[in-house]
Amino acid sequence: MFRIVPQLTVRDVSRSVEFYTGLLGFTVTEADPPDAPEFAALDREEASLFLVSDASREALSQPVPGGTPRGVGVRLYLEVDDAVSEHGRLAAAGAQIHRALEQDPGQNYAEFSILDPDGYEIGIFS
Q1: How far apart are CA 23 and CA 49, in angstroms?
Q2: CATH class of the 1-62 domain in this structure
Q3: DSSP run (H or E) holding 27
Q4: Which residue has the higher pLDDT, 68 or 39?
């Protein structure tokens, strides 16, 4: 088996877990420690994501060179069955829409993006 599992450094693991489970349907497979996690592993179908607190490891809590904000240059993509419906659901749930819904009906393609609580961009397409 070979797969890639992104790990995002976040300010508040519990807040990020709530975002990814509540809005995007992930489930928590591991949280350490369970009551106030500094690390969490999430799964949804074949996708996995690790979240780690920026305060949990000294190396991860060092300033970013040049003061680059968290999330710059990182975009996660989620492929869904119907991006138009997913856009409506997430907008109604209060997700921060970052890039407006774009559709190409001739290609049967739609895409938009949202931001997670730390500014990581999540592209959603079908």
Answers
A1: 15
A2: alpha beta
A3: strand 27-32
A4: 39
- Looking at residue 57, its pLDDT comes to 61
The rounded mean pLDDT for the chain is: 89
Contacts of 111 (CB under 8 A, 6+ apart): 83, 99, 101, 102, 123, 124, 125
> How much is the pTM?
0.84
Q: Give the Cα separation of 26 and 44 in Å (integer).
A: 5
108: tokens are 């049967």
pLDDT at 116: 94
Distance CA(82)–CA(123), nearest Å, equals: 13
Residue 3: what pLDDT?
A: 86
For 71-126, the fitting CATH number among 3.30.720.110, 2.40.320.10, 2.30.42.10, 3.40.980.10 is: 3.30.720.110
N-to-C CA span, the chain: 26
Q: How far is residue 87's CA from residue 38's CA, in Å, rounded to a whole number?
A: 30
- The alpha carbons of the chain give a radius of gyration, in whole angstroms, of 15
